[in-house]
TrEMBL record, chains A, B:
One of its GO terms (molecular function) is thiamine binding. Thiamine binds at residues 18, 50. Residues 11-90, 116-195 form the Thiamin/hydroxymethyl pyrimidine-binding YkoF putative domain. This is Thiamine-binding protein. Coiled coil: none annotated.
Length: 197, 197
């Protein structure tokens, strides 16, 4: 257990939904949840979304796992997610910050081959130089080879799911300029779409 | 034609996707598009999302129509949408700002009965007092009777679809403090869900 990092870490949260475009959507979502180890995050579900909260690496690990398992059967599935850090008053789930950093779903996540297309947008809040941060993060995605093009109100990523998720995690972490930064990142990730681009 | 308002209006855009949780998702989406009058907005679609841009009232009118028609058949359908105004460099589609303000889909929108649950979040960008604006808008939703509760990273609305969409439009418009404000609002609206809250 890496308790030493506990005091300097900040809790990350994600509100997300999975949309399998299938009559079997309930089974697909429940199956993806069963195949995901949620033991290192706080979680809660209502009829619109699920929330997970904890250390950044576990939040990204869990969301990636639930999406990969939802799409692994080949049906068209979409993830919509809002990641947040530094929201004023955001403390519920702090107990999960004392876990270690070993990702519980990483091995299985790596084993699922999947091509995805994604849009993402970053919102650094409370700061006048937010556009500079956004341009910097677009540069990061270009370096990582997942950037496809800019679109209105979003940037488009494409490629293997694991690489796209890695870019999103790096972008979210890099966008935090100080340990008080409030940053929100939204993303829509689509797999097995019958549409052409 | 109300050309006089053209110079002071600002273009509003929305990036959105509709997710019908059904094997018939393609037919449902295409049917909803056929039943929606898009003549007063600029629009573009890729394999992840659709963009509509133009005057605020037409953007909200069109997005509401596409969602209502997607859910009208009783199948579980979700709208995910990001509304934006004031994004630096955002001008494409400006020609549509010279339309009049008569909503092309309002009458049919009013005729579709539908109960929905929604999450929404507001991101006023580039300003240190963004949290004050967010609290003000939550107050507005409470006044309008659609507010249900606060949730992590979002507020929850519930009720008739028409009233929920009205609150979202009012919230987005009210959050603009100056004619240079850059404001983003995200929302997830769910209808006919088999889940309980």
């Amino acid at each position: 257990m890496n308790h030493l990092s506990c005091g300097t870490s900040r809790i990350v949260g994600c509100r997300f939904s999975i949309y399998p475009m299938s009559d079997r959507f309930v089974d697909i979502i429940l199956g993806a949840l069963r195949n995901t180890d949620l033991s290192k995050v706080w979680s809660h579900t209502d009829d619109v979304s699920t929330w997970v909260r904890g250390r950044s690496e576990h939040v990204f690990d869990v969301v990636q796992s639930i999406f990969l398992h939802s799409a692994a059967g080949g049906e068209h599935a979409v993830l919509n997610a809002t990641f947040s850090i530094g929201c004023p008053g955001d403390t519920q789930g702090d107990a999960f910050m004392s876990t270690d950093d070993m990702r519980m779903n990483a091995e299985r996540n790596q084993a699922i081959p999947l091509q995805v297309a994604a849009h993402f947008a970053l919102y650094p809040l409370g700061t006048p130089d937010y556009m500079d941060t956004i341009y910097e993060i677009i540069g990061l995605a270009k370096e990582e080879g997942t950037f496809d093009e800019s679109a209105h109100y979003a940037s488009r990523l494409e490629g293997e799911a694991q690489r796209v998720f890695a870019t999103l995690e790096h972008a979210f972490n890099r966008a935090q300029k100080t340990d008080k930064s409030h940053v929100v990142m939204t993303t829509t990730i689509s797999a097995n779409s019958p549409s052409t681009k």
